[in-house]
């Protein structure tokens, strides 16, 4: 099996990513899978070269060694860096277009928001532009979401049932500025890279069926999924780089040992009662496998 560590380049890695690495490498070990590293910089407005350099420094410093994929920011171009592969995403999009499975949408986020019922958790697009025949260029490109439920067996959380057409409707594959979306670029890459085990945070469990439907539409077998717990702060909020300035790069530069950082991630995740320093290898064996 092949799984992947695929950070998005929207900031420096933080303690939540360390927990994610422990799960990726640990669950991979359990299933005898190889770990592929991929750089998800599809959002060109936020990606910065220093974030990419920091990913490789952080992995090496903490002791997480990928088996496949990209291992250095000097690999240019790479099949494993999304910004180097726009032509590939375009070819997949054109296949969907030939099959009549995508359309251009001219609605703004504000217009869609105005049609939502009170208390809606997520914007659900009702298909206003589905039959307008707008060009894809210069418009949001939407996927005709099948009107069916998707059932899958999560390796951690068990049976899941999701209905994307009721949750989000026809979701977007590319925005009007021409930027590929996470859902689309990620599925295209997982197919091309032969990824058959996806390990990701439980915060994005709700959107997994969208990716499964894209896999099925592209006639590829969907991967197995394992959604792991996250680190939450005292208020129950997910630890994220936006809320927390402390990056692993900063911790490393402050002189703290990598084992201490891994120990802290384990304690903050509730996996260990103390933040006793441990190596990645020890942590994987003791807390993940
Ligand atoms: Zn529209």
In short:
This protein has 289 residues and is an alpha/beta fold. The protein has helices at residues 15-30, 49-62, 86-98, 109-114, 164-167, 182-192, 208-217, 248-253, 258-268, 280-288; strands at residues 2-5, 34-37, 68-69, 102-105, 140-143, 150-154, 158-162, 172-174, 197-201, 224-228.
Which key phrases capture this entry?
single chain, three-stranded parallel sheet, 10 helices, 10 strands, 35% helix, 14% strand, binds zinc ion
Describe, in plain words, how this protein is organized in 3D.
By secondary structure, this protein is of the alpha/beta class. It has one domain (2-100, 184-288): HUPs (Rossmann fold, 3-Layer(aba) Sandwich). The chain is 35% helix and 14% strand. The chain has helices spanning 15-30, 49-62, 86-98, 109-114, 164-167, 182-192, 208-217, 248-253, 258-268, 280-288; strands at residues 2-5, 34-37, 68-69, 102-105, 140-143, 150-154, 158-162, 172-174, 197-201, 224-228. The strands form four sheets. It has a three-stranded parallel β-sheet. Strands 4-5-8 form a three-stranded antiparallel β-sheet. Strands 6-7 form a two-stranded antiparallel sheet. Helix 2 (49-62) links the parallel strand 2 (34-37) and strand 3. Helix 1 crosses helix 9 (258-268), helix 1 packs across helix 10 (280-288) and helix 6 crosses helix 7 (208-217). It is globular and about 60 Å long. The model has no long low-confidence stretch (mean pLDDT 95). Zinc ion is lined by residues 105-107, 128-129.
